[in-house]
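FW: tagging you since you asked about this chain on Friday. Here's the raw sequence from the shared folder, copied in full. Didn't touch anything.
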Amino acid sequence: MTAVAAAAHAGPAPRTTKNRSLPSWPVAGTLLLYPLWWALGLGVLIFPMTAAVMLFLLVRRRAAGRTLRLPPGFAWWAVFLIAVVASIAALGADPAGTVPERATERLLAVVYKLAMYVSLTVLLVYAGNLTEAELSRRRLVRLLAGMFVLTVAGGLLGMVAGTFEFTSPVEWLLPAGVRSKGFVRSLVHPYAAQIMDLVGGEKPRPAAPWGYTNTWGNNFCLLAPWLVVAAWWTRGAGRKLLAVLCLAVSVIPAVASLNRGLWIGVGLLVVYVAFRHLLAGRLWILAALPLAAAALTLAMVATPLGATVEARLDNGKSNGVRSFLIDKALDGFTGSPVIGYGGTRNTLGGRNSITVGESAGCEHCGNFTVGGNGQLWQLIYAHGAVGTIGYLGFFAYGLWRFRRDRSPIGIAGSAALVTSFSAMLWYNSLVTPLAFMVLAYALLWRNSDGGER
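HL: got it, structure written out here
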């Protein structure tokens, strides 16, 4: 009786604290099952879908009293997001030399991009707040390495079956009038390659599973370092050999892509990694580089790859269009330098005349997209100086903040960010390249404090 009375006087027993750990599956599932998402017609649409789940889990964790941390330099990224929203106010403007449209006609693409920027922000915060017990850095590195293997596999598919495509389940579910639109089709219709005439005759350029050849090349550079790190950490000689074999095979679709930006990115990647190793006193890199260069040279001479590279360098068909669009972006910037125009615009006509535009017989003769030829030019044109400074400032701050990290993650993560600065001159980052950039940032961030949260 005394015990019962004492218990009653003490009041109800305290509630046990609920487990509010963050599950790894929203991140791991997005990456590991990406071939499935691509085949279903979800592709990049999986990012806002899983971001909604991540946001719910983050809010629930915060409500339970657990601390949520923001990545270092997040103020820069916040400035960028604010600029993206503020620039919508200029969506109805028609800069000189562009096709006039109402703001409502441009709104869908702008909302799509904003949704993707917000979704990848959630991915960054979520991946950065995961503990080692929830999703270890090593496992995340292996997942990113697997994405490189997927990129190489998609590149080989694009080479041997360039016309391969199919109607996805999501595409089947859409009304005919919706799925026939080019923008929607690019999101939900899986295909292996883009067929283009760059070196005489139409040839397939690898795109699977990333939708565009340029995106394929961008992701190639962003993901390659993670395969090297994953192989470095593995103890099995067989796995190391498979990684080396994958890197060697990857040269074939990389060359076949006819992607000069990719080739420049790989060169920058190798130089940067070698420089970081030299700073760390790892002089063995001085012997490894000549051996790799000799192997690559032999492959170029002994196979048709060398002739492909030479033919591409001799045919710069896109140079004129790129210069034209850069000039248009810079001219547009002078008209709205602070917040830009909220989105891209299509040019009136082509390079030589405003009367030359797209037609059934010449789809690429004009009406080019200003800001569609590189993330830097899109930032300047669509979001002005404020958005550009916020975006570049965030990733530049990360490079500076984590500059002393000489671990494999530190070098690979910073190498990915360095190549992204090169890629933004000719590639746009949404969606998957930016996703891999923020995951690299999250790994650098977690590595800076040993993964402790």
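FW: The CA atoms of residues 48 and 119 lie 5 Å apart.
HL: agreed, and The beta strands are 193-197, 202-206, 345-346, 369-370.
FW: great, closing this out.
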